[in-house]
Queue: 2 jobs
Job 1
Amino acid sequence: MAEDPQASGRELESYLAALAPEGDVETTVGRQFGNAQVHQLRLQLVANEQLRELASARGTSPSALAQEWVMERLRYEFGQHQQHGKAAMPQWPE
């Protein structure tokens, strides 16, 4: 009896599917859009709810608020770096 030539392909697909984490169906880490790069941010459920509440109170989306906070922190960190006489860091757009 001849072996099914597609059997090994299906076996490999099943194996790879079993290895793939179910929660990462939409992995976007590293994907670039224009001059921006996308990063996933995983938060604990409590933190996620707090972010949603704060964003709603400010009339914005959770992702926009998180992005704003990251950019503010980067500006702060780079400013601290420059104040301590370290090598000049790149300037971030406003």
Job 2
Amino acid sequence: MSTATTPRKVRDPYLDNAKAILITLVVIGHPLNSVNSYLGGALETWIYAFHMPAFVMISGYLSRSYRNEPRQTGRLLSSLLVPYMIFQLIHACLRVLINGSDFNVNMFHPSWTLWFLLALFIWRLCTPLLKSLRYPLAFAVAVSVLAPLAPQLDATISLGRALSFLPFFVIGLLGTPERLDKIRNFRFKWLAGLVLLAGLVLSFLTHTDFPVSIFHMTASYEIYGTTAVKGMIGRILVLIVSTTACFALLAITPKLRHWWTGIGENSLTVYLLHAPILLLFRYSDAGETIGNGGTVLLVLGSIVLTLLLSRRWVVKPASWLTNPPVGSWLVQGLQKDTRKRGASAHA
């Protein structure tokens, strides 16, 4: 009997480079939430205008083949839902240790950064449905604009963000390798860079005139204190601005592998681990005393933290928390499916 070996699929460094840039911006942006400096406010507004929309867009692109098969469902549980539950517990324990609050775990209300795991879980489950629609992007935009009209919409089970960020996920879902190549090989990269630079300058000039929460897209228009008409107009503008910035970032992302590409390969680990480390800073008053110079140091420290958390000697032992191998325990038929694929590979 001959043994056929299947060549290992080589990762595309382009998407990992994009994720490396974005997760670095995530780690930079989160401590900026607690900083009152002018520089911190400008950087936070600029970062939040596109970093999570771009992450959601890439997640949609990588979800194109999702069909709720046992193997995919097992991976979905082990990489998203179970880590979500684990880190909900970790955040609750840290809150007790840091500020002496009562131990309280509510799995329906994501703690700080964990909303993305729950939202991505919802989007992945809805992928077959979204792909069956005739006009999925128009549907997603309508949902994003109309859902916040409901006064009850909030952060419960990440529903506010799951509905509001849906257009970015669908844009990625509609992507193809050919379309991605057009963005990757965009000739006028200087123009894309100029778009991002103009956004940064605009943020410096205007960020005090509106709250950065308009980019968070967590809750209803009523909770944000605006009328339905203004809320819908603002949401449409946010979708346009964020989508433009996302494409600009993807256009200037390097195509080849670099020394920092590994950050993107381990972006989910960085996402999960950085928040517990920053919780002490988040619950302290330190951010109120930080000026522009301190903000620069905070940005540099966040970059260093990103590098450290993406190293193999951190990622591998942490995988029992960030991606525990429990899929085969939870999904019926997964072990049988795994054995079948293993047998066919050696036939």
